[in-house]
Amino acid sequence: MDTLSPESTALVVGAGGGIGHAFVRRLLAESRVGRVWAATRSPRNPDLVALGEAYGDRLAPVAVDILDEQSIADLARHIGDIDSRLHLLINAFGFLHDREADIWPEKRLEDITPEAMLRNYRVNTLAPALIARYFLPLLNHRERAVFASLSARVGSIGDNRLGGWYSYRASKAAQNMFTRGLAIECGRRAKRVICLALHPGTTDTGLSEPFQGRVPEGKLFSPDFAAGKLLECIDGAGPADSGGFFAWDGAPIPW
């Protein structure tokens, strides 16, 4: 991450998840970033505690509830009181299923429920939008900054050849549209901010676990691999890429 310096700050929202934790670890280990804010519902989880012991105050674990607008606003205020600028913000969270609530990707139209569709939309679309709303002032400065959200190839309208998974597909397509709109607005009022929608590939996390049996050999990535490839995409992105939707290997994905 050569674009980051000892004066740079990064925020990973969803740092308690598999890819989120991998982002935090790689940013601390492989870049010169000054501080990494790691936002999660449980900032005292053992993985973050271990990283804190290794990297000291370069890591700043903080609590956030991405389903609570006030919690997001409070987090932005807290970070802004300590660091006046952010150079990288990664939304590393997502929702696909909930075993306890019996929410699963739909196989047919009759499987759609308001609960599942709204849950997908709140996490995958509304949360990134609210995070952008409250954190854009910290990203808008004279240096390069990146706002990146993990999306999914199944959110591509042009690439949808199988159907199904209505709630997840729709929420990710809406997230991509938001990212595109944000990039256009930033082109007018925050010209140094690059906005990206990123597909990590099928990654070995709890989100994909029930569906890994159908993944072709060699196509199930570790969180560390996915985070590393996506950081390469982030590092190489320029103003012309803002608003784009890219896979883990840097290839553009159709909207």
Automatic annotation (TrEMBL):
<dbReference type="InterPro" id="IPR002347">
    <property type="entry name" value="SDR_fam"/>
</dbReference>
<dbReference type="InterPro" id="IPR036291">
    <property type="entry name" value="NAD(P)-bd_dom_sf"/>
</dbReference>
<dbReference type="Pfam" id="PF00106">
    <property type="entry name" value="adh_short"/>
</dbReference>
<dbReference type="InterPro" id="IPR051468">
    <property type="entry name" value="Fungal_SecMetab_SDRs"/>
</dbReference>
<protein>
    <submittedName>
        <fullName>SDR family NAD(P)-dependent oxidoreductase</fullName>
    </submittedName>
</protein>
